[in-house]
């Protein structure tokens, strides 16, 4: 059973701690997908890119969601702008994203349309209409030809955009997540690797595979020897979060960077778990943490209690990193415990925050087919000053040989297309999440229904 006490800050928990069923329309109905486009994607804040990806004035990249696409561009020291990627004249996209590419990027002082040569500056103003004299004396009213602009803001080192002109400020939208994750200084992290691929499933099926720990013992059996990876899931307003169950006195072990508590000596099993995690998934840890874990057996006597092993491991890794200029944030044990292991930022971004690393997922519709999505996984860590790896997006489809050695994520992937098929089978009533370990999925659909207007979870 569960070991962690309920979090008093959780919102709406009394309503959601009972069984619910989530109607399947949310996952494959074309009408629902259309309603998402009109009422969800156009209203929320969307996570787009890292601030560090656009270091210089004029640096831009494209961001596609469903059949929309935006150009996000740096326009100043701390300012970014975003425009719909469409020429005001007759609708040709200004920037072409090559088929199979994650995005298009570059540096521009102006955008020139490839159809008839209209031009736009980085503020979205139309600066040139070819054959302007055809518009008569005075030429065209260029103010009517501006690029459609959307709002942009930054938080956590990411650029976010919203198509909603009346959206609440980003920081307010991200609460309480933003305040609870502030101590982790995510803006100081840089990408170690990032991969993207398409799945034959709805974008929500892909995200929900990572919104709970309930699947870990069955989908990832290799982790069983390292102890329990089961945990709680809480509704936090629009967003949700998860954390591992942990016994009293080990509250920090609810977090992503945690020690193993299998039947083995925790010094040995933590080292084994770190090496397995590094090789088989390359997330949730760093080389420094792996090296420090490998020393535990030499540095601590047999019988050292788990809480001492955890503290020693983290402080020795922190010291090693400090020596190479990698300064970890210092959240208090209470902050670490309260922030859990990952946040599901409504609607389609997950931040799995660790002390010196993070693992983020996102999913979004691929075109207008509710049975297809784009999925992204990105791993971050703190690098020494001046070292900024800027890992490119690598397209890594499910059958790519990379996944043959990095076996853990493919275990999650193996459920995706299968669920999309299964949910359409005769007699299936809808998702029935675990009220404790999968509560965030119910919260997710409750909030989705508020935007989309249909698909609310129903008490069973
Ligand atoms: S569509 Fe862009 S200039 Fe004609
Ligand atoms: Fe998983």
Question: What is the secondary structure topology, with strand pairs?
Answer:
Layout: H1 13-16, E1 20-21, H2 25-28, H3 30-41, E2 46-50, E3 59-65, E4 68-74, E5 80-84, E6 105-107, E7 110-112, E8 119-121, E9 126-128, E10 149-155, E11 158-162, H4 170-174, H5 177-181, E12 190-199, H6 203-208, H7 216-219, E13 231-236, E14 239-244, H8 266-280, H9 287-299, H10 306-323, H11 333-339, E15 342-345, E16 349-353, E17 357-366, E18 369-381, E19 393-395, H12 402-405, H13 408-422, H14 439-452, E20 458-459
Parallel strand pairs: 12-19
Antiparallel strand pairs: 1-20, 2-11, 3-4, 3-6, 4-5, 5-10, 7-8, 8-9, 10-11, 12-18, 13-14, 14-15, 15-16, 16-17, 17-18
Helix pairs in contact: 8-9, 9-10
FE2/S2 (inorganic) cluster (FES) is lined by residues 87, 89-90, 92, 113, 115-118.
> What is the architecture of the largest domain at the second tier of CATH?
Alpha-Beta Complex
Helix content: 25-40%
The number of distinct β-strands equals 20
Task: Give the C-alpha Rg.
Answer: 23 Å
- Low-confidence residue ranges: none
CATH superfamily of the largest domain: Naphthalene 1,2-dioxygenase Alpha Subunit, Chain A, domain 1
The gross shape turns out to be globular
Which cofactor or ligand species appear?
Answer: FE2/S2 (inorganic) cluster, fe (ii) ion
Secondary-structure-derived class: alpha+beta
Report the end-to-end length measured between terminal Cα atoms: 22 Å
Total number of helices: 14
Strand content: 15-25%
Overall CATH class of the largest domain = Alpha Beta
Question: Strand order within the widest sheet?
Answer: 13-14-15-16-17-18-12-19
Largest sheet: 8 strands, mixed
Count of structural domains? 2
Mean pLDDT: 94
CATH topology of the largest domain: Naphthalene 1,2-dioxygenase Alpha Subunit, Chain A, domain 1
Pfam family, one: Rieske
Organism: Cryptosporangium aurantiacum
GO molecular function, one term: 2 iron, 2 sulfur cluster binding
Keywords: 2Fe-2S, Iron, Iron-sulfur, Metal-binding, Oxidoreductase
């Amino acid at each position: 059973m569960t070991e962690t006490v309920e979090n008093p800050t959780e919102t709406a928990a009394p309503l959601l701690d009972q069984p619910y069923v989530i109607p399947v329309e949310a996952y494959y109905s074309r009408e629902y997908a259309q309603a998402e486009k009109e009422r969800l994607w156009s209203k929320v804040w969307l996570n787009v890119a890292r601030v560090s990806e656009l270091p210089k004035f004029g640096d831009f990249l494209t961001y596609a969601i469903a059949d929309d696409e935006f150009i996000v561009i740096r326009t100043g020291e701390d300012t970014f702008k975003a425009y719909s990627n469409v020429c005001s004249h007759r609708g040709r996209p200004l920037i072409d994203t090559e088929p199979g590419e994650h995005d298009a990027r570059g540096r521009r002082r102006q955008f020139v349309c490839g159809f008839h040569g209209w031009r736009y500056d980085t503020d979205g103003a139309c600066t040139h209409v070819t054959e302007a004299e055809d518009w008569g004396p005075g030429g065209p009213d260029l103010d009517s030809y501006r690029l459609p602009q959307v709002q942009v803001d930054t938080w956590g080192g990411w650029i976010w955009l919203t198509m909603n002109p009346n959206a609440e400020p980003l920081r307010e939208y991200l609460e309480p997540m933003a305040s609870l994750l502030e101590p982790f200084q995510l803006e100081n992290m840089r990408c170690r690797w990032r991969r993207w691929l398409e799945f034959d499933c709805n974008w929500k099926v892909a995200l929900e595979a990572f919104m709970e720990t309930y699947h870990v013992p069955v989908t990832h059996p290799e982790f069983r020897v390292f102890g329990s990876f089961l945990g709680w899931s809480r509704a936090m307003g629009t967003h949700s979060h998860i954390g591992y169950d942990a016994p009293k006195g080990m509250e920090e072990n609810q977090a992503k960077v945690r020690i193993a508590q299998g039947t083995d000596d925790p010094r040995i099993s933590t080292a084994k778990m770190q090496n397995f995690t590094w090789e088989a998934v390359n997330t949730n840890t760093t080389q420094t943490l792996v090296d420090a874990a490998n020393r535990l057996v030499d540095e601590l006597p047999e019988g050292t209690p788990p809480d001492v092993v955890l503290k020693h491991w983290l402080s020795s890794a922190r010291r090693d990193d400090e020596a190479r200029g990698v300064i970890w944030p210092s959240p208090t044990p209470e902050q670490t415990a309260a922030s859990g292991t990952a946040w599901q930022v409504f609607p389609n971004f997950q931040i799995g925050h660790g002390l010196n690393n993070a693992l983020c997922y996102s999913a979004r519709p691929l075109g207008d087919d509710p049975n297809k999505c784009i999925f992204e996984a990105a791993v971050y860590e703190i690098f020494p000053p001046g070292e900024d790896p800027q890992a490119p997006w690598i397209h890594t489809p499910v059958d790519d040989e990379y996944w043959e050695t990095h076996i853990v994520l493919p275990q999650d992937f193996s459920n995706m297309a299968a669920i999309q098929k299964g949910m359409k089978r005769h007699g299936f009533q809808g998702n029935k999440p675990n009220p404790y370990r999968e509560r965030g999925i119910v919260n997710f659909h409750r909030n989705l229904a508020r935007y989309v207007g249909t698909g609310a979870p129903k008490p069973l």
